Automatic annotation (TrEMBL):
InterPro entries: Methyltransf_11, SAM-dependent_MTases_sf. One of its GO terms (biological process) is methylation. The keyword Isomerase does not apply. It comes from the Archaea. Coiled coil: none annotated. Residues 48-142 form the Methyltransferase type domain. This is Methyltransferase. GO terms for molecular function: S-adenosylmethionine-dependent methyltransferase activity. Keywords: Methyltransferase, Transferase. It comes from Methanosarcina vacuolata Z-761.
């Protein structure tokens, strides 16, 4: 199952990178605004970008003065990253984040993981490793698709306006195949499982955001106003003690 979910990312890497458009597509802008607000000033910080994909966000962090270690298990993603998103303060490594990380204890000030945790089959060991490689105090910020709402379709009214979502088996943990960029696997787990993993690792949650698109974005894409009524993402900040 683990190798399988990683292989999919090799196949979709190019399409993902194109559609993501350096974090400028509609969806990315929603959660990245919240991630950046929680990150604050990163100048001089040692940051691990876990599941860095094509590295566009790792590059942004490096350009802001952070010392960035970016890891991903997809060689195809890393190939794109090493061509497109290069900086002296940025190093890329191929690493499976469901296994023990090869970094020393307390190596980083911040670990950031955008859109990774719902893509891996098991989160406890990664969150435990995040706590280990973070300084004390240190910060873990991650964004995920909103577990309550992501897998349910919108219901439309007679005017084709998206009005509500029906939530069915929210509490059932399961794997779903997605097809946004080609086939990838989505590991659904309720929101509480993420919080429990943080608690078990000895960290605590200091912020939880359900970001909606900034007003300027809705002005550009008014047909996507429904994103302001039901959040599509959750961004969580946890601290080590
Ligand atoms: C949705 S993409 C997010 C990429 C990037 N963080 C972004 O915001 O665009 C998920 C990434 O997680 C990576 N990934 C999936 N499973 C992984 C694993 N076990 N170890 C490391 N990276 C993994 C994939 O290769 C992919 O690049």
């Amino acid at each position: 199952m683990r190798a399988n979910s990683i292989n999919h990312w090799d196949i979709v890497a190019e399409t993902y990178s194109e559609k993501n458009n350096r974090g400028r597509n509609f969806n990315s802008q929603i959660y990245l605004a919240a991630v950046n607000e929680l990150l604050g000033n990163v100048k001089g910080k040692r940051i691990l970008d876990a599941g860095c994909g094509d590295g566009f966000f790792s590059l942004e962090l490096a350009q802001k003065g952070a010392l960035v270690t970016a890891v991903d298990s997809s060689e195809a993603m890393l190939d794109i990253a090493k061509h497109k998103h290069v900086h002296d303060n940025l190093q890329y490594y191929n690493m499976d984040l469901t296994r023990k990380l090869t970094f020393e204890d307390k190596s980083f000030d911040i670990v950031v993981a955008n859109m990774l945790l719902m893509d891996i089959p098991e989160i406890e060991s990664l969150v435990f490793e995040v706590d280990r490689v973070l300084k004390k105090p240190g910060t873990f910020i991650f964004s995920i698709t909103h577990p309550c709402f992501f897998l349910s379709d919108w219901e439309e009214n007679e005017n084709n306006i998206k009005t509500y979502k029906k939530i069915g088996n929210y509490l059932e943990e399961r794997v779903e195949e997605l097809n946004f960029w080609g086939k990838t696997l989505h590991y659904h787990r309720p929101l509480s499982r993420y919080i429990e993993a943080i608690e078990k690792a000895g960290m605590y949650v200091s912020s939880l955001r359900e970001p909606v698109p900034p007003r300027e974005l809705i002005e550009l894409c008014p047909e996507k106003e429904y994103h302001c009524r039901i959040p599509s993402f959750v961004v969580i900040m946890a601290k080590t003690v």
